[in-house]
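Record type: monomer structure entry
Structure origin: computed from sequence
Chain ID: A
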Amino acid sequence: MQFSWVHAMDMPPEKLNATATEVLDMLDRWSDRMHGHHTQKRQYHRVPYRTLMTVYIPYNDHMAGEANESAGFTVWSRNLSRGGVGFIYTGQLNHGKYLMCLDAAQRGELWFLVEVVRSRKVHDHFWEYGAKLLERASI
């Protein structure tokens, strides 16, 4: 698993959260401007979903409910659909499977095995990711 840590991780948490919010706002403004200019290939409608989510690296593909807790990290969600979730993170993640808690800031009960299928570098050392929801996981 490759992670590319950047100086953003050295920021105080309040500054990092503020920067993440600014990045999400920029991405949303860009999407709003481009709406109707590009053909959408999405299977399901996306809705805004802004919260902190927790991500873990599963032990293997066959153990969706098991995670190496020492490898957990926090990401900022952007949007959600029936088939996937969009989020940003300050590190570069490999495409592949992860265990994700979609409501870590609330009750911590919505766990899914996801597959990161899209990534791009965006603003202020953040990367944007798109992940498919593969299956519900029980922790």
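Annotation 1: Residues 7-137 form a domain with the Thrombin, subunit H fold (CATH 2.40.10.220).
Annotation 2: DSSP finds one helix and seven strands in the chain.
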